[in-house]
Amino acid sequence: MTEKRENWGSRFGFLMAAAGSAVGLGNIWRFPYLTGMNGGAAFIFIYLGCVALIGLCIMTAEFAVGRRSGLAAVGAYKKVSDKWTFAGALGVLSGFFIMGFYPVVGGWAMAYIAKSFTGLLAAPEAIGDAFGAFITAPVEPLVWMVIYLVINVLIVAKGIQSGIEAAGKVMMPMLYVILAAIIFRTASLPGASEGFKFLFTPDFSKVTGQTFLAALGQAFFSLSLGMGCMITYGSYLNKEEKLPQNALIVTTMDTSVALLAAVAIFPALASFGVEPTAGPGLVFVVVPQIFAQMGGVVGPIFSALFFLLLFIAALTSSVSLLEVVVAYLIDQHRMERKKAVYITSAIMAVMCVLSSLSMGVMSGVQIFGVGFFDFFDILTDKIFLAIGGGLLAICVGFFMKKEDLKDELTNGGTISFPAFELWYNLTKYVIPVVIAWIAFAGITAIAQKGLMIFGVLVIVVLAVFSKKL
Ligand code: PFF
After folding, report:
1. What is the model's pTM?
2. pLDDT digits over 324-374, tens only?
3. What residues line ligand 1, using a CB cutoff of 6 Å?
4. Do the beta carbons of residue 30 and residue 221 sit within 8 Å?
5. What percent of the chain lies above the pLDDT cut of 90?
6. Which atom of ligand 1 lies closest to the CA of 254?
7. Least crowded by CB within 10 Å, which of 204, 237, 301, 386?
8. How far apart are CA 289 and CA 120, in angstroms?
9. Is 241 helix (H, G, I), strand (E, B) or coil?
10. Residue nearest to atom 7 of ligand 1 (CA)
11. Cα distance between residue 272 and residue 24, in whole Å
12. What digits encode the pLDDT tens for the residues 195-241?
């Protein structure tokens, strides 16, 4: 290897990058619509339980594994034992698959920044149809997706400090400011209180095994866990950083943005009498309607700001997804960074073309009953990430030395981590069981059984053939 392995330049920089990875489409695009589709407050409670019990522990574990090994996902697992390589490989594959649809939505966000000024808001009643027409068109979304992907390439090609870290430091503070401005506006709309009621009064009668799986998958997706992303980011951390504390900060930042996004959107839904169960189109259809009502020049500006928020959130996450694959190629195959970025993103671009077209001209092409977009989405979010997280918990709990973990989490005994025993026992005994239970309950309740079986088979195949990776 010619390049020396880089580290983060500062604590703030790392936190912005890690929180940047966590805060993404998962928080602003997906969390609100999942909440809407799964009955509101009940889903939020289950989600928060998954975050507090499982997410926080797994993030702490990923940071520890990453920094201890100083390697990205595959290398880090390999250090524990050759037999574990497949778990890292599963992570890299998840990164690929998520990047098979994520830039498509990132491109939609970019397009909507522009569209906010070019007549989107002029006909509020046509916004829903306009969104449908836009995403099913063959060319326009592809152009935006490519622009979006190129921006990712430019950032990741620059490396850790001057690429990913620099981008996070500028964009994450911006994101909070924009979000605050939008909440300020929507919370004061007439009728907003209905939305708050939906968000905070749970109706547990809507809860099924699927609700739990959706909440668990969302927790992993939103916190960037279960695919080695935080292992990779942890591998660039210096030895002075306090891992448990950083995990707590990143988890809190991520969860607060998800809740704030819901608080920004649901009151407005109620105010305009829009059903909260709108699905993936929710923010693209509802949010412009909110701002259309504001009229004048303020409406378009707020609308553009919202989609800028979505774009920024998406970008700092997709660079981390790309980095997971790139770091693997650098660490395990001694590939030069730029080359790794170009090759990886070229493959991702092809997958994104399929996903984007699956919204329209290729909607008839189905794998296991779903189009490409849903295929990549469901496979990662509902299977790979949760299983990846479960594997990590088992690997850490049963295959790593407890003293080593304690040493890593207390910086060689120089700082205290009073909750170590709790963390260790939760990670080793409770989390694998809870994940297995939720996965089982969810998978038996889900419609796409073929897809689930396919996902599990992929993991088995990886386990058999991963030695060479
Ligand atoms: N956490 C990101 C989001 O909420 O949009 C998505 C993501 C990034 C998932 C990185 C997984 C990952 F490793």
Report:
1. 0.94
2. 999 999 999 999 999 999 999 999 999 999 999 999 999 999 999 999 999
3. 21-22, 24-27, 98, 221-222, 224, 227, 229, 317, 320-321
4. yes
5. 74
6. 4
7. 204
8. 9
9. coil
10. 224
11. 26
12. 888 888 888 888 888 899 899 999 999 999 999 999 999 999 999 99
Residue closest via CA to ligand 1's atom 9 equals 224
Mutate to test the pocket of ligand 1, among 63, 156, 221 (most ligand atoms within 8 A of CB): 221
Which one, of 326, 321, 350, lies nearest residue 338 by Cα? 326
Length of the chain: 469
Residue 280 C-alpha to ligand 1 middle, in angstroms?
16
Q: Which of 102, 175, 310, 317 to mutate to test the pocket of ligand 1 (most atoms within 8 A of CB)?
A: 317
Encode burial over 189-211: b for 16+ CB neighbours within 10 A, e otherwise. beebeebeebbeebeeeebebbb
Distance (Å, whole) CA 393 – CA 436: 12
CA 338, CA 326: separation in Å to the nearest integer?
A: 9
- Exposure string of 75-111, with b = 16+ CB inside 10 Å and e = fewer, is bbbbbbeeebbbbbbbbbbbbbbbbbbbbbbbbbbbb
Q: Which atom of ligand 1 is nearest to the CA of 314?
A: 5
